[in-house]
Amino acid sequence: MMAGSSEYRPFNLAARVGKRRLIPFNFKLKSAVPAIALFLTAVAILAGITQHHRSITYFLRPLWDTPPKPFTVIPHYYAPNTSMAELCELHGWRARASPRRVFDAVLFNNELDILEIRYRELLPYVHKLVILEANATFTGIPKPLSFSENLERFAFARSKIVYDRLPVATATAGSQGSRRREEPFDVEARHRRALNALLRRSGIAAGDVVIMADADEIPSPETVQLLRWCDGVPAVMHLQLENYVYSFEFPVDRGSWRATAHIFSERTAYQHSRQSDVILADAGWHCSFCFREIAEFAFKMKAYSHADRVRRESFLDPARIQRVVCGGEDLFDMLPEEYTFRDLFKKMGPIPRSASAVHLPSYLIKNAHRFRFLLPGGCLRRPA
């Protein structure tokens, strides 16, 4: 071909090779962008689920969990200056010629203020106050024997108190010689077995009543009087308690049901779970995390069976705890545990404050100057 021909093109090997390489490389890069974006999105979603899996699980609970069988609620009748015979009859029961003995059995951690209110409220109506405390928490944290160290504070009830201490090992030997902590719920179960044994050593007999509850689950005197004076009371009956958190300024609901009253028999065992289908309405108060000092909040958050809810160290910051307590928010930044979306949405957000101090433990009201932190307007806590 002649050099001047218009069809002549110089052969450039580098250009041809470069073009062949460049086009496929650009094509692969462009086609990989959606895959990379999809991968990064999946990683972000997975990280979000990992970080917020508890909130997601609680939010979706109405979809995956079935609510327990509803209780048969026994209406609770009471009015001042009404005889026990009339009250027993209103409940469908009959009055006794003499009262039963009532034993109050609790596990104690560090709730000194609530325990004093409980004992002052129940002292005239119970035969024995049975109490057990351990030298470590359910999560294996060593703790002082607070009740033992404050016996003088409870001198008013000394004649009725049956007390014992439970030594708890904070670790057990593993199969390879290593040491591991016991599971908190296993430790809690051991506490309850020990309390069951202490209850039997207290002199309880068949036909007596035993109230099984945590220290902050306080039955009302009206409830205890029914248990003392009425025949026909169910052999095992749950007590529906008004639920409060941080103080009596923040009422949550009437969903506290774990406290129980038993007509004692040889088969009676100390438990804190569902044991019956019947529950007595408006039977008292449950004041959870109702502490005087900020340090007590942090200690319980780390100590009780659900200590895994402390997902970040910042949860234990004193300034945060104080802010949460005064705002009626959740200490563990969790959604409500509900079985329907209606109840879930209704309880989301801070707990509305109550300005009412009516129908609370009488000793609390009579000594309001000592327990101001448990009443409306008293949310500020001592820093230590």
UniProtKB/TrEMBL annotation:
GO terms for biological process: N-acetylglucosamine metabolic process. One of its GO terms (cellular component) is membrane. One of its GO terms (molecular function) is beta-1,4-mannosylglycoprotein 4-beta-N-acetylglucosaminyltransferase activity. InterPro entries: Glyco_trans_17. Pfam families: Glyco_transf_17 (PF04724). This is Beta-1,4-mannosyl-glycoprotein 4-beta-N-acetylglucosaminyltransferase.
